[in-house]
Write a structure and sequence with these properties.
With about 260 residues, the chain is of the alpha/beta class. The chain is built from seven helices and eight strands. Helix 2 packs across helix 4 and helix 6 packs antiparallel against helix 7.
Amino acid sequence: MKPPSWPVEQGEYIVGKKTSPVAISTLGSDELAEAMAKRLGRENFAIAGKTHTENIGIEKIIKNTISNPNIRFLILCGKDTRGHMAGQSLLSLFNKGINHEKRIIDSEGQMPVLKNLEFSETEHFRKQVEVIDLSGLEDIKRIEGEVKLCKEKNPGRFERTMAIKKAPQLEAQKPEKLILDPSGFFIIYPKKEEGRIYLEHYKADGTLNEIIYGEDPVLIASTAIERNLVSRLDHAAYLGRELEKGYLSMIYGFQYIQDRAPGK
């Protein structure tokens, strides 16, 4: 199944009516978008969602906006993100733009560099939308009032749409053949009564090498990697998946059965 044509960027968004002139960023207030959607109705905004970072988060807003000429207003609301300062960075972008290094001028964020955008895209964005600054506000009734005002003064579609340069999208496929890790293989034993997972590492010849145990699957996997028990990325991914599955089997009580590594 093909991904939807819009939004062009993936993210944790609530998509409303594409022809609405309003986009909403709730910045660091994660629950606010869902609450607003229930109060406002999805037909009253084009897209709504959180923005946590001053770089990739802002890039996604820009790409989703300039690829939809119906959007003429961006409402910033909710609490700004500490350290990243996504809201303050967005306001700085509108007021000052970016410099020759694609850094947002006067941003207080940690790394406000828009590496995945062209200068023309940021300028298009600044011309297309008007920013309504309600940063720090979580009052849904007040936000609803601003949405209504935006719809009343909607100037109509922006004069042009920009074509967005997209990264290649590849559908995941099963490997054609199984490639063994020369560092050896693992056998995983979750022990619910102990609240531990035991990870046995065997050398490629089948000799037991060592046993790692612990309660946290992330720490177990990290220890195995630090001890050079994994030499292939696909084996590391497999190990992480199986350790997490073993951990969940202890929590939810289902029987853990270790799968073979991917490949034929």
